[in-house]
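WARN  no MSA supplied for this record, continuing single-sequence
INFO  ligand: nicotinamide-adenine-dinucleotide
INFO  echoing inputs
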Amino acid sequence: MKRYKVAIIGTGGIAKIHADALKTLSDRAELVACVDIDKERVEQFASAYGISQSFTDAAEMLETVKPDLVHICTPPNLHAELSIMAVKAGAWALTEKPLCASLAELDAIQKAEEETGNYVSSVFQHRFGPGAAHLYRLIQEQAMGRPLVGLCNTTWYRNEAYYAVPWRGKWSTELGGPTMGHGIHQIDLFLWLMGDWEEVRAMAATIARNIEVEDVSMALVRFANGAMGSIVNSVLSPREESYLRFDFEKATVELSHLYGYGPDNWKYTAGELADPEEFRRWSAVPSQKYGGHTAQIAALLDSMDKGERPLVSGHEARRTLEFLTALYKAAFTGRPVRRGEIQPGDPFYEVIHGGYGKPGQKVGALS
Ligand SMILES: NC(=O)c1ccc[n+]([C@@H]2O[C@H](COP(=O)([O-])OP(=O)(O)OC[C@H]3O[C@@H](n4cnc5c(N)ncnc54)[C@H](O)[C@@H]3O)[C@@H](O)[C@H]2O)c1
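INFO  complex generated
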């Protein structure tokens, strides 16, 4: 196993989670450099984590350090540009969510991947807990029968102080509200498990916070396998919860937690068609060595060792971003949106709000 040289760009809140995860995985990866436009912050970060080199310019760091892997932890509007810079400088990129601002940007990332042979992977740490991998395998085996009904609720709470950070709450920098920024984790996991989506109908609006982006959205989804699902994304919910529910022909599977889950957060309930012996196997959720970012980074290092495309990249990243774009299009146009219909030339291909999001204005208000 190779020990990789890693750099972090953006040393704010989430960068600490990345640095802690890299410390846990220090036999496989060494955090050798960090970058932030805020000199004092980057120097403090370097000293807290014993990182030998700090920079205030990403291009200079890439040129000087030539890292194998770059973690991009800046505000969302910079993700695509920095991811493309990283792969062009010879590194793989692990980019915080949301990976990019639009399907147009995703196509640019994919072009850079093709030109360089390096991959850009999106942080979706919820996919990497063993409980999710266990359920994915059961679904591939059709152990519990077809999925029929799914619920995906991200009911969180963010106050005005949270939105006082300048990049938050704006289409140009946060790129969206709880759909794009908070529910995105569960939506990604939900879509991966339920199978390919076909059609979405939705509503989204700014109903309480003083922000441009939506503070609540709701969607109904039809899947290619015939299943139906509903999705709620909110930052207005005082009792916070992340909740997924899957009703298969023979059993119901639920996941309830807040920002990270372990084996105990999963609940399997047998239906009348379940064989008790089989049910014991289904409901035996494996224990986990790592969770969260550490689990995803460990899996990414495995992909680097093998030179293989990492799980949440390419087609897998597109499924979720195309869905989010379709959700906004359905909400803002009031029409159902089918998978594949948002192509170059469609206003929603270029910008995720399709021109409906305006600086300083709320969205979705009743006229
Ligand atoms: N996966 C998760 O669970 C999770 C949780 C929280 C945040 N995030 C994501 O992480 C990202 C960062 O969020 P945060 O809360 O850490 O934000 P933050 O504002 O705390 O940190 C961002 C940092 O990036 C720096 N920065 C800005 N422009 C830069 C540039 N051009 N080059 C280098 N550094 C630059 C800022 O100075 C700041 O220090 C966001 O995309 C957010 O959605 C993910």
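Residues 9-15, 35-38, 41, 58, 73-76, 78, 96-97, 123, 125, 165, 181 surround nicotinamide-adenine-dinucleotide (CB under 6 Å).
INFO  checksum written, moving to next record
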